[in-house]
Amino acid sequence: MKLSTRTRYGTRLLFELAYNYGNKPVNLGDIARRQSISEKYLSKIIIQLKSAGLVKSERGAKGGYMLSKPPSLINMKEIIEVLEGDALFLDCIKDKAICDMQNMCPTYDFWHGLAEVTNSYLSSKTLQNLIDNYNKKSEKFNLAYYI
Amino acid sequence: MKLSTRTRYGTRLLFELAYNYGNKPVNLGDIARRQSISEKYLSKIIIQLKSAGLVKSERGAKGGYMLSKPPSLINMKEIIEVLEGDALFLDCIKDKAICDMQNMCPTYDFWHGLAEVTNSYLSSKTLQNLIDNYNKKSEKFNLAYYI
DNA sequence: TATATTCTCTACTAAATAGGTCTTATTGGT
DNA sequence: ACCAATAAGACCTATTTAGTAGAGAATATA
């Protein structure tokens, strides 16, 4: 139930790319510095996001990473599924082959209910929602800039 | 976001104790056999539950473990907090000392919202609810017994 | 074309998690 | 008093997760 470092870093990373959507590619070194995260570790995480199709890259000087579609079309649920290796909560909920005792398992319904409430929360949010929320906060607290 | 093995085993363990509440102590070997879980690993988990005050034990022959209060008074949230070492989701939500950037953190509100929906789900369930649900299922599927 | 910049890949280390082995302490039943 | 059953503890192993180091491949720009 703890959020993995991978997921926390991954969402911060995607937020940066979302915030920059439409501009030139962002290089990992900048993000790593701003977010105080190991660049090497970020580079591993972003490869995962790339092969899932959420992110694309440009090599060479002035290269970097970009979101592959607008922030409003990227759902937080799909992000977390990619980062957590698509076993959100319980393997047995995703894949009946792992355990077909749902009928008699005394905890299955309980965990299934938990997965439902979190999935519906995650499905209701996109990267655009995070940006909007951040912009609103920036005004409120007079943060002149973030990136 | 994945449920740890520790938490899954711990809830199954507590369910067994809850189901037996009011009877004589249950020994770990029986639970381990019924639930197909390593007894040694269970014994580590239950020590944690014991020192948190959820469970008490009796040594010697015919000894074993019991819930220290009725199942209806044991909330699923407290169980999971004990098993997950009380860092549910985000350290920074529990303890502001870890990171006081909430005002400007672009992902804090998002994770905080997730913690809210799960906490309210977990708070709404007790071990008694799991028992009731199990009994209802047993009827429906004609499972003559569980324990 | 040369080069600095940036992504990509492989290999390593450290810590946490999941589990096993063996021994000791405690208690009920005979 | 003894024995069998049971909890409790110390210590070891394998796998996964988190993070580091460094070489190599691609490419925009001068």
Detailed description of the structure:
The structure is a homodimer of 147-residue chains. Chain A has seven helices and two strands, in the order αααββαααα. The longest helix of chain A has 16 residues. In chain A, helix 1 crosses helix 3. Chain A is globular, with a radius of gyration of 18 Å. Helix content of chain A is 53%, strand content 5%. The mean pLDDT of chain A is 85. By secondary structure, chain A is mainly alpha-helical. The first copy, chain A, has one domain: Arc Repressor Mutant, subunit A. In chain A, a hairpin with a 5-residue loop joins strand 1 and strand 2. The structure holds a DNA duplex (30 and 30 nucleotides).
What key attributes describe this structure?
Arc Repressor Mutant, subunit A, 7 helices, globular, 147 residues, homodimer, DNA-binding
Biggest chain-to-chain interface with counts: A-B, 41 and 41 residues
What is the total number of structural domains of chain A? 1
Order of helices and strands of chain A: HHHEEHHHH
Largest sheet of chain A: 2 strands, antiparallel
CATH class of chain A: Mainly Alpha
* Terminal CA distance of chain A: 31 Å
**Ranges of chain A with pLDDT <50 over ≥5 residues?**
none
Overall residue-averaged pLDDT value of chain A? 85
Oligomer: homodimer
- Stated plainly, the CATH topology of chain A is called Arc Repressor Mutant, subunit A
CATH architecture identity of chain A: Orthogonal Bundle
Which homologous superfamily in CATH is the superfamily of chain A? Winged helix-like DNA-binding domain superfamily/Winged helix DNA-binding domain
